[in-house]
Amino acid sequence: MTSSLGDALSALLGDGAGAAGDSASGGSGGKPGGRGAGGTALDGLSGDRAEVTDVLFRVLGDDAPEDAPGLESTLRGDIGLDRLGIVELLVRCEEETGVRFDDDAVTGMKTLGDVVSHVEAGREK
Fold first, then answer.
1. Do 119 and 93 meet the contact criterion of CB atoms below 8 Å apart?
2. What's the distance, CA 3 to chain centroid?
3. What single-letter DSSP state applies at residue 111?
């Protein structure tokens, strides 16, 4: 018998919280191009940070903040992604940047800066 999706994601992301403690704030349903496509939240951002932030806004959809979160913003606490939302963010980042997130990398992703740094390092190879 297989474990639940929440248990599998919990093991993948390396936190001990059960699926019942998650909010349902993650998900797709965003506007194409993210909130930043209109020119406000992504102004002043460039390169990999702008690209990852744009993906984040599309994952958050209507729950996206008006301003871009800082690199030190935690994915779960500050930004409000649940485990599934984090996985969706990383999968979309893989698709759009071409940089792979292996299991070891995923377990270390705690902040937006961690994701941006991983994309930057992957592109330097």
1. yes
2. 24
3. B
